[in-house]
């Protein structure tokens, strides 16, 4: 569908299901979607942002993740690594979007209302996919079940994000954050200091900032934490792959540092070709966005050969598609793909950037 993307807009039903996300990139179509995409790409390609992202992740690993893992290991405590990764990505995503660290990752695994509200909102969105529209609308009207949780979560999201926006505006106006130094570093600062008018006449008002922050928070936190969780599980259940990763790391780092604890700089990871291949394979097997639903404006033929009529709703099972041998030229049922990817003979089915840009 990438060749005929404009024929498959989100549509009114999609926006209704995801209404809590407002007019962000997940819910937008056509020119408004292009505007959101342009803003996101400009941030990702900004050298200051890339420097900030690398520094921020390094600090979070050294001062956040490592102390937490050392603490639970010394206490012999069993932890849910999916929860740990989600806390890491929640902090880092919030930092590069707003410039503030919410401190979700800590040894006491404290409850963070912002993160919990996102979880409850996503649960309600999922339930809306699997029960009839009339049922969840009735639940919303009487304030019952996941719809009741969604309304409370919605209020929390608005309050927290509104507070972050007000705080950023105050910091910028008082010179706490220099506009010249911080411009383009985190997304919120960039959006406030670089006003832009969209095709519909709107500007970067607080509602636009709220919708953009929430959409990118969900995209950044959940896709990355899901990918890391499946990656870790796959590596742990395939010891031969773990050995290959360790061997590659030992070949890349200086000999005097072999066996010593360290955190890799961002540019150093470019040399870890096999590790990159394994991560791509994990994304293929367990895509963080396992399905999508679409409805074409005009009749079309899907790559599978199926005909779809205008406004005909259908679901795309990305997880199933990624496991079809003919779609990926799978040459081996086990680790053959990682070896082919590492040697450059196969293109990865899905990359993390493709996941976030496909919305």
Give a written overview of the molecule.
- By secondary structure, the chain is mainly alpha-helical.
- The protein has a domain at 1-222: Cytochrome P450 (Cytochrome p450, Orthogonal Bundle), CATH 1.10.630.10.
- 60% of the residues lie in helices and 3% in strands.
- The chain is built from 16 helices and four strands.
- The protein has helices at residues 11-17, 30-44, 47-75, 81-98, 113-130, 133-142, 145-173, 179-182, 187-193, 206-236, 239-252, 273-285, 318-321, 325-328, 336-342, 352-357; strands at 291-294, 300-301, 307-308, 314-317.
- The strands form two sheets. It has a two-stranded antiparallel sheet with strand order 1-4.
- Strand 2 and strand 3 form a beta hairpin.
- Helix 5 (113-130) packs across helix 7, helix 6 crosses helix 7 and helix 12 crosses helix 15.
- The longest helix is centred in the middle third of the chain and has 31 residues, at 206-236.
- The protein is globular.
- This is Cytochrome P450.
- Belongs to the cytochrome P450 family.
- One of its GO terms (molecular function) is monooxygenase activity.
